[in-house]
């Protein structure tokens, strides 16, 4: 794992490293022997590896990769006094405004917007609840965030990787498959149509009152798809 980790120090001789959107990182505050003050180092958690590292000899037991790196931080930063190790994640603004009507080439404009999103303004900084004030101050200053944009997290800083656990072969922890159900309003509609000797439509039901459908719990085919099939064409006045 060590070859995939690249500690990036921030000091007067090194600029603050670029923090990509939604990436999980470790903030390390350390001190060199004889140095005047502490130094800030950022270690990006590799995204090309599973975040859950299996414990040897154990079944379905895992260690978070960031905890494993923190426990062996002395291998990455030897001969340094480690003062603080904390996790953090930044979220950048995904909204980049462009006027589509004046764009000469829409595809080029979209590619430019996607590229600019990588360097957009940071709108949220999530940190460990016990991160040192010094580390928080460095991140706030260098990322340009206000106090109300800093969120302290207890437990995991990033929950997205928990989806990996759904791929485990543990049927005893999985909910049974759900079969979408017909909406009761549309069932009553068909019964009413049969009683009148005809067939009521989706629009007859909607005309009586709005119908709220909740997918995937309600059947898409028996509700929304049925509505789309029975929709009436919109006629435009002839000129």
From TrEMBL:
InterPro entries: PP_kinase, PP_kinase_middle, PP_kinase_middle_dom_sf. It comes from Halobaculum litoreum. It holds the Pfam family PP_kinase. This is Polyphosphate kinase middle domain-containing protein. It comes from the Archaea. Residues 2-165 form the Polyphosphate kinase middle domain.
């Amino acid at each position: 794992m060590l070859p995939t980790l690249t500690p990036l120090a921030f000091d007067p001789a090194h600029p603050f490293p670029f923090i990509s959107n939604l990436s999980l990182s470790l903030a390390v505050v350390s001190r060199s022997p004889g140095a005047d003050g502490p130094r800030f180092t950022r270690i990006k958690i590799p995204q090309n590896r599973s975040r859950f590292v299996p414990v040897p000899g154990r079944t379905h037991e895992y260690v978070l990769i960031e905890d494993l790196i923190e426990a062996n931080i002395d291998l990455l930063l030897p001969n340094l006094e480690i003062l603080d190790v904390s996790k953090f994640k930044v979220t950048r603004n995904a909204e980049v405004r462009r006027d589509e009507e004046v764009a000469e080439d829409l595809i080029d404009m979209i590619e430019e917007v996607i590229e600019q999103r990588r360097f957009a303004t940071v709108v949220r900084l999530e940190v460990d609840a016990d991160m040192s004030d010094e580390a928080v101050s460095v991140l706030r200053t260098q990322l340009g965030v206000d106090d109300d944009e800093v969120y302290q997290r207890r437990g995991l800083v990033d929950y997205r990787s928990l989806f990996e656990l759904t791929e485990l072969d543990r049927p005893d922890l999985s909910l049974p498959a759900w079969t979408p159900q017909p909406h009761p309003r549309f069932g009553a509609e068909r019964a009413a149509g049969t009683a009148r000797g005809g067939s009521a439509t989706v629009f007859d039901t909607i005309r009586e009152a709005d119908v709220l459908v909740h997918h995937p719990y309600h059947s898409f085919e028996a509700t929304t798809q049925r509505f789309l099939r029975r929709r009436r064409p919109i006629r435009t006045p002839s000129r």
